[in-house]
Design goal:
The chain is 73% helix and 0% strand. With 273 residues, it is an all-alpha fold. It has one domain (66-267): MetI-like fold (Orthogonal Bundle), CATH 1.10.3720. Helix 4 packs across helix 10. The protein is elongated.
């Protein structure tokens, strides 16, 4: 908390993320209406009055849908990045620790995955598996495996030659113990920073896939899906796209601010600045 008081940008990022998380967690109590309730009589109502952020073409309350849509964005971002950290981080550590031809082959496979833009790779996976929440998590996780493998491998190449690792081997520790008990804690800071930054990418990718109709199926509210619905009435009801766009902007901005702050806090060259 003392560090946050001296780093106002990071504190602002934490605040933005906290607002979105609280809105998602307490959505059933904060939302004034059911996000799926349709009231055709009140369709395309402008912001104000009984509907603080207006209504869509089916008369559904935009504020309620934004609050519940935050759940999808957060679930997809957290689950996909955690899966990418687990799988990609393990691949990178094991590859760097083994070295040799195995390391070169694994990194060449990761380079092939990195050659695909994250959105295109996610689009291919979702198109093959079908649009639903689980497949969306899998698709975004696959786009992030290669970067996490790279970020985990680099420190292992130098750490495995350090004296404390050699001492562990001399004491008869297994390779798994040396790798996961002694080496892994020394690279977690880089992985955590990368994870916070990639969560922002996951939010954008989920919104993009939902915008083109490959996200969670309606009537489940998603920010990207709301922007797609609002795009059809952008001239008559611009608030349908503006409000979910602002929600995506605030969450992505907050995650990037938190990631930058974590980088400054964990990098010894920047920590004193």
């Amino acid at each position: 908390m003392r560090w946050l008081r001296h780093n106002r940008m990071t504190a602002l990022g934490v605040l933005l993320c906290a607002v979105v998380v609280c809105g998602a967690v307490f959505a059933p109590w904060l939302a004034p209406y059911d996000p799926s309730d349709q009231n055709i009589v009140d369709k395309l109502q402008p912001p104000g009055g009984d509907y603080l952020l207006g209504t869509d073409a089916f008369g559904r309350d935009v504020l309620s849908r934004i609050l519940f849509g935050a759940r999808i964005s957060l679930i997809v971002a957290v689950a996909s990045i955690l899966a990418a950290i687990l799988v990609g981080g393990t691949i990178g550590m094991v590859s760097g620790y083994i070295g040799g031809r195995t390391d070169r082959f694994v990194m060449q496979v990761m380079d092939v995955m990195l050659s695909f833009p994250s959105l295109i790779l996610g689009l291919i996976v979702v198109a093959l598996l079908g649009p639903d929440l689980q497949n969306l998590v899998v698709a975004i996780a696959l786009t992030a495996i290669a970067p996490f493998a790279r970020i985990a491998r680099a420190p292992v190449l130098s750490l495995k030659e350090r004296a404390f690792v050699e001492a562990g081997r001399a004491l008869g520790f297994s390779h798994a113990r040396v790798l996961f008990v002694h080496i892994m804690p020394n690279l977690m800071s880089e992985v955590v920073v990368m994870g916070s930054l990639w969560m922002a990418t996951a939010v954008r990718t989920e919104a993009s896939l939902s915008f083109i109709g490959l996200g969670v199926k309606p009537p489940t509210p998603t920010w990207g899906g709301m922007m797609r619905d609002g795009f059809e009435a952008i001239l008559d009801a611009p608030w349908l796209s503006i409000w979910p766009g602002i929600a995506i902007l605030l969450l992505v901005l907050g995650l990037n601010m938190v990631g930058d702050g974590l980088r400054d806090a964990t990098d010894p060259k920047l920590a004193g600045g």
